[in-house]
């Protein structure tokens, strides 16, 4: 069998797990692939290198793939998604000082997203009355589910991101330092960076993404749109390797080894025990609170990998809520076309991984 070389870019997040496992557990090799993984420093780098074919495929934010395909955000780069890589797994974290302020202002249980949002609105009003600068919240990219979750949360308190609260883009690995330095007051990002901020003593987790939206669209395996049609064998082989990685990753007895792979210096470069706790859904919250156990905090199961065109509706609604677009019927059709469920079904039927019943 001829070995096919593929270069795949990724960002250091727990949700890059399936591409890492495809390489490190030999699933790609078994499909006749020589998989080269390249850690990137920002989502824009990842998008741009995929666009100019420095990468064959990429671990990508689903909304970023839609934005690039639509040509919003300054880059026109049509992409296609034959499979997703996860669902859920993000959280909103603020500095310990801001969390303590929120707790004092909260009228009710802070676990309630509406209660915490109203407390945040009260904090915003107090700061404005005192002549203090607005709070700053960050997300990892200009087009991401993290921004749209932040907007949904703030809306519960009558707040708008970019108006009542400043917004800044901070790549995932830089979020902890940005919080520690006081550059930002909080952020929404995928695991493990919320836990890393808590472990460093600089952050307190306010909400997991599942508190706002369960089974939320997140990362995808993106290809250039023309390559999905031009290179069907490559798409199928990598897809089959990721399906096998998914089946392996869903077994709790493999979590320790999975965390070990992800902890490597050229992967996430964080302690394996921190990552393993996240895989078990055991989240450290900070602010002297006990760990929180969330079942299926981050999903890698086969059903989570199915690309759903309906997810494009939520993404476009989020873009509208964030003031990024005014969606048109043509935009909706193009966005839905980024996700290719028929390609996923083809990969699934050709692979040796049995469909979940």
TrEMBL record:
Main location: membrane
Key words of the record: Cell inner membrane, Cell membrane, Membrane, Transport
Bilayer-crossing regions: none
Gene Ontology CC entries for this record: endomembrane system
Cell location: Endomembrane system
Lineage: superkingdom: Bacteria
A Pfam family reported for this protein in Swiss-Prot or TrEMBL: NMT1_2
Protein name: ABC transporter substrate-binding protein
Organism (species): Bosea spartocytisi
Phylogenetic lineage: Bacteria, Pseudomonadati, Pseudomonadota, Alphaproteobacteria, Hyphomicrobiales
């Amino acid at each position: 069998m001829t070995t096919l070389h593929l270069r795949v870019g990724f960002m250091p997040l727990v949700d890059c797990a399936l591409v890492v496992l495809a390489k490190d557990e030999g699933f790609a090799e078994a499909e006749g692939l020589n998989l080269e993984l390249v850690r990137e420093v920002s989502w824009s780098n990842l998008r741009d290198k995929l666009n100019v074919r420095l990468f064959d495929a990429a671990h990508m934010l689903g909304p970023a793939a839609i934005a690039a395909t639509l040509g919003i955000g300054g880059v026109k780069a049509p992409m296609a998604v034959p499979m997703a890589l996860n669902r859920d797994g993000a959280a909103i974290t603020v500095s310990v000082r801001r969390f303590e302020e929120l707790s004092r202002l909260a009228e009710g249980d802070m676990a309630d997203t509406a209660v915490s949002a109203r407390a945040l609105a009260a904090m915003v009003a107090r700061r404005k009355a005192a002549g203090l600068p607005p709070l700053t919240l960050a997300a990892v990219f200009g087009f991401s589910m993290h921004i749209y979750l932040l907007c949904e949360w703030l809306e519960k308190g009558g707040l708008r991101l970019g108006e009542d609260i400043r917004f800044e883009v901070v790549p995932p690995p830089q979020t902890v330092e940005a919080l520690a330095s006081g550059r930002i007051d909080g952020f929404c990002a995928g695991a493990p960076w919320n836990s890393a901020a808590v472990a460093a003593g600089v952050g307190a987790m306010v909400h997991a993404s599942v508190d706002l939206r369960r089974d939320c669209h997140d990362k995808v395996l993106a290809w250039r749109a023309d390559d999905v049609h031009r290179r069907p064998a490559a798409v199928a082989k990598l897809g089959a390797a990721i399906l096998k990685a998914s089946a392996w990753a869903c077994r709790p007895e493999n979590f320790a080894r999975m965390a070990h792979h992800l902890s490597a210096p050229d992967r996430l470069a964080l302690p394996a025990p921190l990552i393993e706790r996240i895989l078990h859904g055991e989240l450290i919250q900070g602010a002297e609170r006990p760990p929180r156990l969330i079942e299926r905090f981050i999903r890698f199961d086969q059903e989570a990998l199915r690309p759903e065109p309906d997810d494009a509706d939520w993404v476009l609604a989020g873009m509208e809520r964030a003031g990024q677009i005014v969606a048109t019927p043509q935009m909706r059709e193009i966005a839905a076309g980024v996700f290719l469920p028929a390609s996923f079904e083809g990969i699934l039927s050709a692979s040796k991984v049995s469909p979940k019943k």
